[in-house]
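ESCALATION

Customer reports they have been waiting on this structure for their group meeting. Please prioritize. Original submission:
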Amino acid sequence: MRELPGALRDPIFYHLVELLSTSFYSWEMVAMVFLVEMLERMDVSTELRRILRIFTTYLHRQSVGMQQLVLRGMLHLSKRRDTARVIPFFLPCIMDRLQDADSDVRAVSLQILSSLLQILDGFKPSFMALELAGKLPTLLCDESSTVRQLSIDLFFKMLSFAKGHEKKTMQQEVYRSLVLLYLHLHDEEESVIEASRNAFLAAARFLRWRRLEHLVQTAQFWQIGECLLAKRKKRAAQDYLSQSLLYLRSPQEALRREAVRFIGLLGQHLTDQQQAERQDIYDGLQGAQQDPSPFVSSLALQTLKILKEIRPRPAHGHFGQLVSRLRSTWRRWHSDQADS
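Update from on-call: job pushed to the front of the queue and completed.
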């Protein structure tokens, strides 16, 4: 139908708009399929307002299939110069779709937001960046590698749009996101690893953190964890603990393994005044000993044993000894894994 001459195609398209503008009927899904597929080839200037009303109505339907179709239609419009200007009207609604349970809905929403960056003014990208940062933990736990990659790519692109007062607020969100990006440097999908590396490098530059930038560029991933904790001693437990504990339940073995290692480093950072955080670490590592992977469970057991043997350091004490022991444990485990 998209290849039909305009004299035949236009009446069909206008009829679809008319049908979808009326009250509910049983063939609305079929009509929306045709409408979305024809959008790419149609001059919609005369019907744009009605199409936007249609999208507004049907985007709130409970049908996941209908939401996917509407978002695909919006994606078509966001890529066209003559129609992209109207899509920011849907920005709050599109941001809400990032919390949808369906991975396809999330993926298309992220693609639309990426397209919008080229046409939005200075304020809206800053708003999007802050909103996305808050949703990043959920997006990075998505089972779809496409969603994980798109969310990291979008986060990376948005950093360049933070200006003035928003930049200071964004700095705190970037700090909180570092451990997430760090863990996904070990993702099972190469595309996600590459996206994480690019975003981590951009974040280090955004924060003007030269040591961290060097470690990412030279792929010294072991040192990155230590660098994160050494830089933010006072806030590390609060900012990083809950995120890393969450990854102990990741479906990816590599992420669970890296989470155990990072939690071990975090444990050595705690002072004798942080008993609640220390207990959370003990509980998390004890649970990880039941991990179906023998490598993860073994590493959790060794890490917990070391942490319990070392006395909690005073608030400003030295912790190099424990860092060295944890590093040795990690290397021994890695060597055993390679031999097996």
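Sent to customer with the following note: The two ends are 59 Å apart (CA to CA).
Escalation resolved.
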